[in-house]
Amino acid sequence: xxxxxxxxxxxxxxxxxxxxxxxxxxxxxxxxxxxxxxxxxxxxxxxxxxxxxxxxxxxxxxxxxxxxxxxxxxxxxxxxxxxxxxxxxxxxxxxxxxxxxxxxxxxxxxxxxxxxxxxxx
Length: 121
Description:
alpha/beta
């Protein structure tokens, strides 16, 4: 189906989301932090990036800004996964070019709906 890059520093969340994505036929690449995720996005050219906002080192906003700044990765669909539902942070992400937000904790049906909305058909 789709190539999805999952950037999440929480190993348990990363494992659960990866399992869900794989069970739904997606090819999943994982990264445990923003810097590794940025490198993976440049190499794997995913159809969609699911990225945590708050991570040590390079945060999700930095990942998104770097992807949007490079022509080769500027068009990749990008969805934030975050525990923070602060309007200012969400507005910042949307201004940077995020397609959507999934607020933790979330159920897999919600994640599935977001994926269906933003993945190429």
